[in-house]
Amino acid sequence: MNDNEFRIWSEKAAAWGADYRKTLRDRPVRAQTRPGDIGAQIAEAAPEDGESMDAIFSDFEQMIVPGMTHWQHPRFFAYFPANAAPVSVVAEYLVTAMAAQCMLWQTSPAATELEARVIDWMRQALGLPGGFSGVIQDSASSATLAAVLVMRERALDWQGNRDGLASHPPVRVYASGQVHTSIDRAIWVSGVGERNLVRIPVKGPLNGMDPIALEAAIIADREAGLLPAGIIACTGGTSTGACDPIGDVAAIARKHGLYLHVDAAWAGSAMICPEYRTLWEGVEHADSIVFNPHKWLGAQFDCSIQFLRKPEDQVRTLAIQPEYLKTHGHDGIINYSEWTVPLGRRFRALKLWFLLRHHGLTGLRTMIRNHVAWSESLARKLEMEPGFEIVTQPMLSLFSFRHTGGADPDQHNIALVNAINDDGRIYLTQTRVNGKIAIRFQAGQFEMTEADAEMAFAVITEIARRM
Fold this sequence. Notes:
It is built from 14 helices and 13 strands. The chain is of the alpha/beta class. It has two domains: about 20-85 and about 360-465, Aspartate Aminotransferase, domain 1; about 100-345, Aspartate Aminotransferase, domain 2. Helix 4 (about 110-125) runs parallel beside helix 12 (about 350-385) and helix 8 (about 210-225) runs parallel beside helix 9 (about 245-255).
C-alpha cells in the first residue's frame, strides 16, 4: 500500500466509523448470528496472492459486521460498558498511525511524560491524596495480578521470585465472594493457588466483607503457620455492585501488616463525583487501587489506571534491566515497563488526555449522574409493575430484578433475558443472587439518553407480558 492508497483507505475507514456510530440505534445490540455462521464464510487458509482493498473492505462489511455485538450501542445494558467516546477514537487513530512501542522513556518520551501527568489529573479528580502515583495498565486483570505479585513478594521478604513458593509457608490472600473472577486468575498465575484465596463472608446492604470475620481468618492462618500476605477489597463488584467497608478493611490490613489492593474497576469512575465517594471511604489507606477509564469514563479500550502508594515495591517485584533496556545519561526518569507484567506498552495516555480536555470533568460528571438517575428511575418503575421484583437496589447505575412466573423461576427468568436479547432492541445479562437467577441492568454507555432507559422499560415489560 503506497502513501496515496494509505490516505484513501484511512479516510474511508474514518468515514465508515462515523457512519457506523451514527446508525447504531438502528442495529440490534447483540449479534443475531448462530455459532459458526461467520467462520463458515471465512477462507480456510490465507491467500497466496494479495487481494484488493475493495474486496477486503466489502467482506468486512458483509461478513464481519453482522457478527459483532455493538458495545457502543446506547442501549447496551448488559455488562459494564467498554466505552469509546468519539474523541477517544480519534486519539486512537493517531496512536495506531504512529505505532510506537512505549516501553521506556527513551522509546517515546512524550508517552511517558503524558502518562505521568494524566494519571495525576485523575488522582486529583478522584479525590485521592498526593502520595499516590500510578501507571496505565491494559486492564484491571493486569493491575490485580501485579498487586498480588507485590503482596506475595512482600510477605516472602522479596525472595519469591528467586526461590519460588515451594520453600515457604503457603501465602494467603483474603477477599469476599463478590470480587471479580480476575482475582481468581491473579491467584492462579501468581502461584498462590486457589486454596489460598480465603473467601470472607459478607454482610449488610452493600454485601461488603465482614471485618470481624476477616480479622479472625488472618489470626487463625497465622496461628496455623500460614503466611497472610494481602487483602483484595472491591468497590462496585461486578455481579450486584457490592462494596466492602474499605476503611475498616484498611485498618485491619495496617494492624496485621498486609498489603491492601482495592478493585474499583467500574465504580471508580463515579468517584469524580464527590457525593459517591462514601462508597470507598478509607481508600486513601490502600496500597494499590485500580479503576478502568475504559469502562464508564469513555476512554477507548484498553485503559486501566493502577494507583500505587509505593511504586518502588512494584518495580522491585517486576523490573528486569538488561543492558539493552537501560537509559544511560538520565537520572530520575520513569520506565513504565518496570511497573507492569508486559514489557511492551501502547501509548494509552493520549486518548485519556483527549477525553479529559474535550469533555472536561464537568461533562463527565453530568454523564455519570444522569446514568445513576435514569437507572434509579427504571428500578422504581419496574418495582411498581405487577409481576416484577427488585432483587438488589441500585448501586450507582446497577441493579437487578426478577420476573415472577413459570414452574421454575430460574428458567423463567433465563427465558425472559434470552427473549429480550433475541428481540435486539436492548441487551441485558443475568447473574445469581443468593443462589437464584436475577436479571442485571446497568446504565453506562457514553451516548445513552433518558429515552434509551425508557425504551428499556418498554421492552422488558412488553416481552414479559407476552411470556
